Amino acid sequence: MPDRVYGGRTAADRRAERRQRLLDAGLELFGTEGYLATSIERLCSAAGVSTRNFYEEFTGREALLTALHDLVLERAMRAVADAFARAENEPLALRIELAVRAYITTTAEDRRWARLSYVEIVGVSESVERHRLAWRERWVAFLVAEARRAVEHGEAMSRDFHLSAVALIGAVNELVYHWAVGDHRIPLDDVIAEIVRIATATLTGP
C-alpha cells in the first residue's frame, strides 16, 4: 500500500521529522540541563510531539542518549579519517594535530555536544556504559591502525599500541571533561594543544 501524502509529506517524512525534533530536543536538554534533569515529558514538550510518538522512535531516554552519542562519534570518526587522509603525505606531527583538532571540534566545539559526549554519557547505566565502551574499542582499533601506518612510514617504533591507545582516549576524555565542567574557562585551543602533545609522545616515544 503506497504511503499516503498529507500536505506534501508522506507518513515516513513526518516520522523522520518527529525523530529529528526529538534528537534536537535531546541535544538541547541533555546538553544544557543534564540527562538526569530531563524527563520524557519535557523532551516531548520541547520537540512538540506526543509521548506515543516518542516511544515510536525510542525505547526510553537511554535510547535517545545513545542515539545522540552515536551521531556525534560517527561524525567525529569521519572527520578524523578525513583529516588523516588529507594530510597523508604530511609529517606525523601535523597529521596528529589535524586529527586531534578534527575530533575535538566535532565533539566539543558546540558545548551541548561536549557535555553530552564527555559528561552526561558517563555512568548512566550498565547498558549505556557498554555502549560507551564499545565506542572506545572502535577508537582503540582506529588509533592502533594509524600507529601501525606511522611505523610503516618509519615515523614510530614498532610495538604494541593497544594500551597506549586506551591511555590516549582516557586523556582526551579527562581533559575535555575538565574543560566542560570547568565552565569552559580554559581556551579549547589549549586543550587541543595538550592532547596533541600527549598523542605525539604516545606515538613517537620508545
Which short descriptors sum up this protein?
2 domains; Arc Repressor Mutant, subunit A; Tetracycline Repressor, domain 2; mainly alpha; 206 residues; 9 helices; two-stranded antiparallel ribbon
Question: How is this structure best summarized?
Answer:
This protein is mostly helical and 206 residues long. It has helices at residues 11-32, 40-47, 51-57, 61-86, 92-108, 111-120, 126-152, 162-181, 188-204, and strands spanning 5-6, 9-10.
Q: How is this structure best described in words?
A:
The protein has a two-stranded antiparallel ribbon. The longest helix is centred in the C-terminal third of the chain and has 27 residues. The model has no long low-confidence stretch (mean pLDDT 92). Strand 1 and strand 2 form a beta hairpin. It contains 9 helices and 2 strands. It has 2 domains: 58 residues, Homeodomain-like (Arc Repressor Mutant, subunit A, Orthogonal Bundle); 139 residues, Tetracycline Repressor, domain 2, CATH 1.10.357.10. It has 206 residues and is mainly alpha-helical. It starts with a strand and ends with a helix. GO terms for molecular function: DNA-binding transcription factor activity; transcription cis-regulatory region binding. InterPro entries: Homeodomain-like_sf, HTH-type_TetR-like_transc_reg, HTH_TetR, Tet_transcr_reg_TetR-rel_C_sf.
